[in-house]
Design a protein that fits this description.
Blueprint: H1 8-18, H2 22-26, H3 32-55, H4 62-75, E1 82-84, H5 86-96, E2 99-102, E3 105-110, E4 113-119, H6 124-127, E5 135-139, E6 142-143, H7 149-156, E7 163-169, E8 176-181, E9 183-186, E10 190-195, E11 199-204, H8 211-225, E12 232-236, H9 245-253, E13 260-266, E14 273-276, E15 289-293, H10 300-310, E16 315-318, E17 326-333, E18 337-347, E19 363-364, H11 420-440
Parallel strand pairs: 11-12, 12-15, 15-16, 16-19
Antiparallel strand pairs: 1-18, 2-9, 3-4, 4-5, 5-6, 5-7, 7-8, 10-11, 13-14, 13-18, 17-18
Length: 441
Amino acid sequence: MMRYGLSLAATALVAWLALAPAIAADTPAAEPKTTSDTYRQLDLFGEVFERVRSDYVENVSDEQLVEAAINGMLSALDPHSSYMNAKNFGEMEVQVRGEFGGLGIEVTMENSMVKVVSPIDDTPAAKAGIKPGDLIVGIDNEPVSGMSLNDAVTKMRGPVDSEIKLTIQRGNAKPFDVTLKRAVIKIQSVKYRMEGDDVGYIRISSFNEQTDSGIHAAFASFHKTAGKKLVGVVLDLRNNPGGLLDQAIAVSNDFIPRGEIVSTRGRHPDDGQRYDAKPANDISNGVPVVVLINGGSASASEIVAGALQDHHRAVLLGTRSFGKGSVQTIIQLPGHGAIRLTTARYYTPSGRSIQARGIEPDIVVEPAKIEKIAQPEFRHEADLKGALKNTQPQPAADKSKPNADESNVEQDQMGSAQDYQLTRAIDLLRGVSMFNVHASN
C-alpha cells in the first residue's frame, strides 16, 4: 500500500535529531508526566549521539548516525517498518511501476535472518531456484546476521550484469552458495493462456500498477477464444509476495460484483477504512474460479484470496498462505526520502485477521510427484480374437493433462504440464461443469 503525504511527527523527529532545541517550540502540549518522560528519553538519546560522535573509533557523519538511529527505531517495531533515504525511495517508486534493477526477490526479516517470501517469476532469483522460506545467511561471504533488512536489500542491489553470491539455508540442510547475475527486472505481473479449449489460466506474480489491466486483457482473450465454452478460470497466486493495495481491491472487484472486499483497522477507531466492490464490475461473468495459493502468497494476494473465499466466489486450493495481514503506509519526508510504517491490520469481509495465521485453502493439495506403478500386462477386449469392432469415431485425447509421471512441481515448473496443483484445479473446474450439465438435464 502506498499513501503519499506529509507527516508532521516524522518531519519533527528528523528536525530534532539535527537541531535539538527546535522540537520544544513545535511540540504540542501533553500531559506533564508524559512530556517529562519523553524529554528524559530524548536527553538520553542526545547524550549517546554526542558520545558516539566524539569518541567512536572512526569518524562517523551526523547523517550516518541519524539514518542508523531512525532505522533502528523503525526496524525494532516489526519486520516491515523501515526508513528509505532519497535514493532508496526513488528505487522503490520505480519498482512499484513494474521495472527495476536487482534479483527479483521479496524478502522479510525473521529472527534476525533475511527470509525469502517469494522469488518473482522470470527473474534471476527464480531462475536460480531460490524458494519461498529460504534463509539468506550470507551475501558475498559476509554474514547477514546483525544486518538490518534495508542493509541486506541494499547489498543485493547493484549494477546490471554484476554477480552476487548468496549463501542459502534451506530447512535443516547444510547451507549452500548460489551465484546470481543482477538484471533489470521488468515485471509482467499478469500472464494468461487457455488450458485446452474450456479453462482459462491467469497467473499474477505481483500486484503493481499493471495488474488490473492485465486481468481485463486476460478475460477479453478468454471470451474471444472460448466464448460460452469457458467452464472456469484458475487464478494462480502462488509465490505472489503482494504489492499495491488498490490493485488487490481492483482485481477482487473483477470477480465480486458487490459487498466488502477488505477493511483496515489502525490504532485509532476513526482510522479504519472499508473498501467495497463497485456494482456491475464483475468482468468474469460469474464463471467458476479456483484460486491457487501457497506459503509464498502474501499481503495483497491474501486480500484477494480472502475476499473471494469469504464471498464464496472461488474455491481455494493449495497450501496455507504466508500470513502478512498488516498495512504499510509510505510517508514522504521532504528532502530525506520516506519511511515505510505499519499503520493498520487488514481484515477479510468476514472479519478475519490473517496476520501471522495465513489463509487456509478449502482443498489442501501439496505439491506432489505422481509415479507410474508397474502393473502386469492385462489383455483387453480388443485383444481377443474375433472381438467386435467399435464403429464410433475415437475421441481426441485431452492434451492439456500431463502424463502421470510428469507431475512434480518445482519453482520453474509452476503453470507447466508438470504442475500437479494446477492439474487438480483444472480437473475440479471441469468436474463442476460436468456436474452442472447433468444437474440441468
